[in-house]
Amino acid sequence: MDDVKTIFSKREANEITFTHLMEETLKELSHDDELHAFLFIRNADELMADAKAADNAWDEGQRKPLLGIPIAIKDNMCVTGLPCTCGSKILEHFVAPYDATAVKKLKDAGAIIVGKTNLDEFAMGSSSENSAFGPTRNPLDKTCSPGGSSGGSAAAVASGMSLLALGSDTGGSVRQPAAFTGTFGFKPSYGAISRYGLVAFASSLDQIGVLAKHPEDVILASSVLFGQDPMDSTSRDIPMAPQPEASNVKRVGIVKEIDSNMLDKDVKHAYDSFINYLSRTYEVVEISIPHWEEALAAYYFIAPAEASSNLSRYDGVRYGTTMEAENYSESIRKTRNLFGEEVKRRILLGSFALSAGYKDALYEKANYLRQWLVFEFDQVFQNVDMVLTPTTPTPPFKLGEIKDPLDLYKADLFTTPANLAYLPAINMPYPFQENKKDLPIGLQFIAPFGEDHKLLSFINELWQGAEEL
Amino acid sequence: MNFKFVAGLEIHVQLNTKTKMFCSCPTEGLDVPNTRVCPVCLGYPGTLPVINREAVIMAIALGKALNGHINMISRFHRKNYFYPDLPKGYQITQGDVPIIENAVLPLSTGKNIPIKRMHLEEDAAKSVHVSSSGRLAGAQETLLDFNRSGVPLIEIVTDPVFESPEEATLFVEELQATLRYLGISNAQMELGQLRCDVNVSVEVDGKEGTRVEIKNLNSTRSIRQALTYEYNRHVEAYKRGENIITETLAFDEKTGKTRTMRTKQSSADYRYFPEPDLPPLILTEELFEEANRYNGSFLDAYHNALSWTNKEADARTLALNKDQYMLYSSLAEKGFDKKLLNRMILIDLPNILSEVAKTWGDVDKTFLNSILQLQQDGKITPAVAKDLLWQAARGNDPMKYAEEHELLKHENIDIKQIISDVLQQNPDAVEKYKKGNANVIGFLLGQVMKKTKGTVDPNQTRALLEQMLNE
User: A384-415: string of b/e by CB count within 10 Å (b at 16+)?
Assistant: First the structure.
């Protein structure tokens, strides 16, 4: 599928229309019962009417950055009038009364929202199997997971059901599914995109991210989405131009603490060969992040701790599903029993980590480690421009393959450090697969805080360079 | 055995900002339930708090007024617990670093009350318990009104320094006045704008007693009654050799007694942690400058009042009632005689207002101005002045009324002629006076006053009357 720039030039040459583009999209969407990428797809007539309106606007001379472009939204972001289930029984019938800031910006930029994508319940998971409404399948191999928690968004983009998709990334939930579906998945610096309207999982780690097949589309969408928002006090202005520029990257660091022997052999092969490839153009140096390994442990206390508080609001009193009972405490107990196993597990873990007598040893200690990690990355970036890691330790796993939740947590091993350290990071598909039918392998680049545009420009350079080979 | 009363207060004050603490819902017009709400204060998924700048400015103003240590960087925390009136399942409050620490409220009695901390937080929704019988007891349903959800609160925690129920009550009254003079809260307890929890214990022979907490006292009268009741209960128990158990109590206004709400064994773990949706609250010079807008002082008012009235009790009454004080103050500024003002503002007007069920806010200052001017110019007597006040309270222009009813002293009135007329018409009385019955002078004076409709000065007239009788 073309990138947005190409679509616009074809539209300019009257080779295609947005109506045509939407017809193609609808054709793909009609196969979604196989993939289950979406929890909600907007009515076809409405979508065609939106595309027609975009064509008329174009013909009247209107030019907006995403005019007529079909886009999918992860079902944990609010779109006025559309359901927002978060993949949970507890919000099964909840309809959002307002637009998330990111959604509003996309609408203002002319994008057409096609629907809401499947996810692990409240974005907790790495396989999309924790959705209360059934898992999503990987479009590249339907017996495999598309990753998670933004598995639906990744599958939608990979299968051409939308050009772009929004995901959310708390510990890798955009990058890991991108890695599993051979797409680009970008988690910006913390605060770059307003979280207003993103249903909170772990507020200090959550960040809205973009999934697309082309790095230039990631840049374009980011330029629309970035910006300080008065509704989100943790948001801030981070520069993002709509066009890539020369990245001036010279030195790339690889993390000493990653033991490549513990990687799956295909991942190890891709990782090693890409390091080789990189070192032809860039200086590749080994760097050390001493607390790299502790990061996952810190993450699995901080994220559940915040989640246990963020998810307290689902009591059935004001919205969502209410389980009627004799009294309040019985009703809230029954209502909250609608949460799935993984959500309950994390609420319990988080409540425990914050409770009197354990808080210092767990929650506070985890935050202490987090501060170390921030400091260590800071030191590393004195020396290198980017850091490279594999995105995941393994290629896509089979649906149902991983039974032990702890094993699944390990899928986040390389992605959580960027969340903990507030840094921008992206998944780039390994470009040199010998057999194009092989399952994709993801490579992750992490950049210094606020250097999101440099990171994306660099990825764009790399991708174009690799494609020319 | 020697008993000593010990109490500390925990007070929640609603700040009178235009909007709520973390969203832009208005804080006025709350009477129709659930009309001042938005996704943020209803705790909808995906919403985020934004700190109300004005509330921060008000907190700084209070910190400055009470000479507190103002933390240039403070933090918001989440206090987690489940309750139907708590939409997010947590309250955003300030934990380990509040905006203000170690402040002092100087009482008008001269005692300083140390305040441990003051911090910003959000109010919860209001629960209204109803039953088919319409009675609170045995309520079957709870209705929720989220208009109050998210209204800015400042919580004020004192040290346990109060030595009597009266002192605690005085503190609350003077704190209320302090907040009102500053202009940061209306602090009306009956409207829930100021709510009071008390920790109370009784020391026995210098040994610390068991502390109990009384929740939600909603009038100064209740505070005094509840504390007195608890003090007596503790003393009686200790005298009998019994123990007091640590518990949380509620006060029943009807019976004047406290009752158990919960015992401490079930003490909650609120799992406090820093609110990740808000960056630390960093104060700027600009905020401090803006805080200067709130600068009224109760103690200044009290000292002014004392200089006017020369009586501590009068001064306190006047200063505690800001509207009354402001009225007095604005009239005093115009140079009216303090004796006239004391009589009008401290005695006559309060009686009249309570009689006609009006408030200080209803008083028309221009009317008072005219009445005082007439009095000061010697054109009316105190009796007429009081009459005119009544007219003013009924909405009549006192000036017009006085003219229409010929109540003004006329410069061309021939008082000597009137007196001699009265003397001629009452020869019996004159006779009695000459025989040494001085009492009849009151009767004769009454006759003169009647003819002049009270528009002449009674003392001068009496003197003149005596003089003419003796001629």
Answer: bbbbbbbbbbbbbbebeebeeeeebbbbbbbb
List the pLDDT tens digit at each of the 469 positions of chain A.
799 999 999 999 999 999 999 999 999 999 999 999 999 999 999 999 999 999 999 999 999 999 999 999 999 999 999 999 999 999 999 999 999 999 999 999 999 999 999 999 999 999 999 999 999 999 999 999 999 999 999 999 999 999 999 999 999 999 999 999 999 999 999 999 999 999 999 999 999 999 999 999 999 999 999 999 999 999 999 999 999 999 999 999 999 999 888 899 999 999 999 999 999 999 999 999 999 999 999 999 999 999 999 999 999 999 999 999 988 999 999 999 999 999 999 999 999 999 999 999 999 999 999 999 999 999 999 999 999 999 999 999 999 999 898 888 888 999 999 999 999 999 999 999 887 778 999 999 999 999 999 999 999 999 999 988 7
Range of the domain at A74: 4-225
The span from the CA of A74 to the CA of B135, in Å, is: 48
Predicted local confidence at residue B137, as pLDDT: 60
Of the residues A145, A173, A189, A222, only one is catalytic, namely: A173
Q: What's the total number of domains in chain A?
A: 1
Does any CB of chain A come closer than 8 Å to the CB of residue B410? no
| Residue A412 placed within a domain | no
- Provide the ipTM: 0.96
Q: What is the mean pLDDT of each run of 10 residues along chain B (471 residues)?
A: 96 98 95 96 98 98 98 97 96 96 96 98 92 62 94 98 97 98 96 96 95 94 97 97 94 94 75 97 98 96 95 95 93 90 92 87 86 85 85 83 74 77 87 85 86 78 85 77
* A263 in a structural domain: no
Number of H helices, E strands in chain A: 16, 11
Active site residue A309: no
Does residue A329 have an active-site annotation?
A: no
Is some CB atom of chain B closer than 8 A to the CB atom of A196? yes
Rounded Cα gap, residues B123 and B14, in angstroms: 8
Domain contains A146: yes
State which fold the B415-470 domain adopts: Arc Repressor Mutant, subunit A (1.10.10)
Provide the whole-model pTM: 0.91
Distance (Å) from the C-alpha of residue A358 to the closest C-alpha of chain B?
10
CA B399/CA B411 separation, integer angstroms: 17
Helices (H), B254-378: 285-291, 298-309, 312-320, 322-333, 338-341, 349-356, 365-376
SS3 B134: coil
Give the CATH number for residue A204.
Answer: 3.90.1300.10
Active site annotation includes A173: yes
Cβ count near B211 (within 10 Å):
17
Cα–Cα distances in Å, from A383 out to A245, A288, A424? 22, 11, 17
Contacts of A332 in chain B (CB under 8 A): 82
Phi, psi of A377 (to 5 degrees): -65, -40
Judged on CB neighbours under 10 Å (0-12, 13-18, 19+), B206 is exposed
Domain with CATH 1.10.10.410 in chain B: 415-470
Inter-chain residue contact B50 with A84, CB threshold 8 Å: no
Token pair belonging to A22: 């939407």
Q: Do B46 and A319 touch (CB under 8 A)?
A: no
Residue A348 sits at the chain B interface (C-beta within 8 Å): no
Out of A88, A149, A159, A189, pick the active-site residue. Answer: A149
Residue B30 tokens, joined: 């709350």
Which amino acid type is present at position A106?
A: L
Q: Considering the domain boundaries, does residue A464 fall inside one? A: no
Count Cβ atoms within 10 A of the Cβ of residue A214 and give its class: 0-12 exposed, 13-18 middle, 19 or more buried: buried
CB neighbour list of residue A343: distance below 8 Å, 6 or more residues apart:
A88, A121, A122, A124, A130, A311
